[in-house]
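Notes to self after the Tuesday call (sharing in case useful).
The group wants a holo model before anyone commits to mutagenesis around the pocket. I volunteered. Ligand is coenzyme A. Logging inputs and output together so the record is complete.
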Amino acid sequence: MLPGFGDTRRKLPWHLRKREEAPTFEYAFRPATRADLGDVREIYNHYVTNSVVTFDEKPSTLKYWQEKFDMLQKLGLPMIVAVSPNDQVLGYALVQPLSAKSAFRYSAENSIYLGPGATGKGLGAPLLDELITACRDADLREIIAVISDSGADASIKLHKKAGFKEVGRMGGVGYKFGRSLGTITMQKSLKEPKTKRFARRS
Ligand SMILES: CC(C)(COP(=O)(O)OP(=O)(O)OC[C@H]1O[C@@H](n2cnc3c(N)ncnc32)[C@H](O)[C@@H]1OP(=O)(O)O)[C@@H](O)C(=O)NCCC(=O)NCCS
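Result:
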């Protein structure tokens, strides 16, 4: 090799170089465990602090998540985590009771949050599908999504694609970061529950 002509000389100009393959984004789904709740809390609190996609204003505590998890377990309602190949929590989805009143027992409100590094990579749709399947398995009949009318366009699109229909709007019901916020309510009917369960959830 001539002096002054190092390895760089052998490199092709950038436009002729072979494009490096984007690393594949791998994930799997599994039911959430108590051990995941710290990560779930961290993901959720990111949006509490930095966005209006949730109307919570104070970061949630681990105790809050433990109590919610125990309640969902008791009611047989699904909470799913998306994890990376090394089991790092990338996001979660759950449903919780729509109301404490017992006649609402076949309906639930859903929630889906991906960590900021996991958004925009096509994970939201399969995670929501997984949740919907788990809701069918839990004999739920209606899933309701209450979505902020500001800054949640990806969520609205995601729910629409999964078959949710807009059923209502409420203007000015929230106030966060010095401005009024509304909600868009979307609903998905699960027409063919796997079995018919008429027992009361309690
Ligand atoms: C909402 C969320 C679960 C969606 O999952 P995701 O994998 O990031 O979804 P995608 O990036 O594939 O976006 C879904 C769709 O919305 C579109 N979208 C994304 N950002 C958008 C924006 N700012 N405006 C309009 N559309 C947007 C995408 O193009 C995509 O549409 P397509 O399928 O036709 O390409 C995820 O972004 C998230 O966790 N966001 C923060 C928390 C949140 O908003 N949770 C929901 C609370 S109700």
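Two things stood out.
The domain at 26-189 is CATH 3.40.630.30 (Aminopeptidase).
The mean pLDDT is 91.
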